[in-house]
Structure formats: C-alpha cells, structure tokens
Specification:
binds SN-glycerol-3-phosphate; binds magnesium ion; TIM Barrel; globular; alpha/beta; eight-stranded parallel barrel
Length: 237
C-alpha cells in the first residue's frame, strides 16, 4: 500500500512547507501530496487554503490570487504550528519538485482550475514537461473542469479524480472520459463495495486522510491501493 505524505509530514511539521516535505522524505515516504494555487503574477504556490487566514502570520485576509509571489513568499506559514517553524514560507511547486526528484512521487492537487486561476493547468503542465516530471507527478482536483482542461492539454498526464460531492454514476462516467488512473476519495465515503467497483473498472483507490493504525489496517484489508497520511511513518500491520 502506498503511503502518501499528506501536505508533507504535516502531523510533525507545518503543512505544505519544505520542512514538512523534507521530513516526509527522510521518513522514507515514497510519495508526498501538496496543494497548488496561483498568485496574481502567475507563480505556482504550494499552500492549502485560498488565503492566509488559517496558517499565515501576520493574519491576512488577502486571497492568494490577489497577492504577488513576492508578497506571498514572505508570509510566515510555520509559526501557527510551533515557534521553531517561524522561518517557513510557502514554497513554489518547482521547489518541491527539485527536492523530491528521484526520491518520491509528488501528488499535485490543483485547488482550482482556470475558472479562478486563469491558465493554471497549462502552467503546471509546462513546468512538469520542462522538468520531465510527468511520470512521477499524478495530478488531482475536486474541480473536475480543471481535470478536463488538463486532459485536453496532455494525453500523458497522470490524473486522479477527487470525488467530493459528485454522485458515483456521474463520477465513473467522468473518470472514464478523463482516463484517470485513480479514484481519490475521503475515508468517510469509502467502503469495500466501492473499492471493488473501482478495481473492476481498472482504477486505483487512494483514500484521504488516514492517521490511525486501525483504520489503515481496515483499508488495507479492503484492498485500498494508497492513503494520504499526515504521519508517513504509518504502515499496515
Ligand atoms: O488529495 C487528498 C486531500 O489532500 C484532499 O483534501 O483538503 O486535504 O486537500 P485536502
Ligand atoms: Mg490536498
């Protein structure tokens, strides 16, 4: 079972920071997950929320899409987790790719597509092509139009379908159209029947976010292919 360090080793260090990704790799994680937004000046920034209210200090209301990279890159996104992380700033997608290349897959979640971030799909793909990273960077999104945009731009991109509130019938239809390789689904939505159906359709099943040993073991018994975990040292018993 693939253990994917969710936002890096985010149980031990501030999420989506270089220290969290380094820690995940040091733990031996074969894969890390991160979230991507786009700044006003088109930089691909690794952060989960659409603004800095939750993890940023000083607290700011500005949306990432209205900030320049220069402004965002100066934000402290570590202090909320612990004083010793006060020097952590949001990385660029490219920084995490440089760190992980040759060591781990990078599962890239686009928090929104062109509807909010014009051109983000093309920009991510250009970066991955330039870095020859398409093979080790599965792309996912709850924004299914973003997945359609990615697929239209790249037949080779590895795609994962984040289910969200989409009904299963429609989801399976879209997953087939998109030629995704995985159904990415919440621990609250998964069950043995869904795992079987997805496998019958040739899809892997990746479950988020799993932090308890007992739950991990239950999912392993169901045949789940991978989990997003804040504690990447977890292993099925
Ligand atoms: O990609 C799995 C998971 O990261 C989706 O939810 O909110 O943690 O980005 P979230
Ligand atoms: Mg995510």
């Amino acid at each position: 079972m693939l253990i994917i360090a969710h936002r890096g080793a985010s149980g031990h260090a501030p999420e989506n920071t270089m220290v969290a990704f380094r820690l995940a790799l040091e733990t031996g994680a074969q894969a890390v997950e991160l979230d991507v937004h786009q700044t006003q000046d088109n930089e691909l920034a690794v952060i989960h929320d659409f603004d800095l209210k939750r993890v940023g200090r000083p607290k700011r209301r500005s949306k990432i899409k209205n900030m320049t990279w220069d402004e965002l890159s100066k934000a402290d996104v570590g202090c909320w987790f612990g004083k010793k992380f006060k020097e952590e700033h949001p990385p660029r997608l490219e920084d995490v790719l440089s760190l992980a290349e040759g060591r781990a897959e990078v599962h890239i979640e686009l928090k929104a597509g062109s509807r909010i971030y014009p051109g983000i799909e093309r920009r991510v793909l250009d970066l991955l092509r330039r870095r020859r990273a398409l093979d080790w960077t599965p792309l996912s999104s709850f924004d299914h139009q973003a997945l359609f945009n990615l697929r239209a731009l790249s037949p080779q991109a590895r795609l994962g379908y984040l289910l969200g509130a989409t009904p299963m019938t429609r989801a399976y239809r879209e997953m087939a159209e998109l030629k995704v390789e995985s159904l990415n689904i919440s621990r609250r939505q998964i069950n043995a029947r869904k795992v079987q159906t997805a496998h019958d359709k040739g899809l892997k099943v990746l479950v988020y976010t799993v932090n308890a040993q007992q739950e991990l073991d239950g999912l392993a018994a169901m045949g789940v292919d991978g989990v997003f975990a804040n504690f990447p040292e977890l292993k099925p018993s």
